[in-house]
User: What shape does this take?
Amino acid sequence: QKRKVCANLTLQHHMLEPVQRIPRYELLLKDYVRKLPPESPDRGDAEKALEMIFMVAKHSNAAIAEMERLQNLWAVYQRLGLEDDIVDPSNELIKEGPIQKLSIRTNSTSEKYLFLFNNMLLYCVPKVIQVGAEFQVHLRIDVEGMKVRELNDTQFPHTFLVSGKQRTLELQAR
Assistant: This one.
């Protein structure tokens, strides 16, 4: 990258070039087909080329989106301490965020954190000493068989119950 022929550009910049060419080719071909006379002998081949480059762009965008999804998923797994039983590339993170856990016995609330995946809900506790993991998984509820019921409690607004096979949680949203 220090050579003159590389124009002082980084390796990452050069690796983006092929990805950036695809949309340029698509724009070029669209413009070419638009300006091509309808009776031109090249019209059929140009339209086929445009269709092919469109499919390549679609595939490239899908691959990039999948890579970003996997990177985001890996970041979540790292925040959870890379627990073996939840690390699975087929998981999809749907939503995550803080939540209040209501305790009926002590009539108090405590800050917890939820991760909702396509197949499970992870009920987590923030770690006080953050060496590696940010959260500790306290409960895993499989989405299959999970029940969610809203409560109409005037003392605690925005409360709901999440029931799994093992346990029921009373939670309060902000």
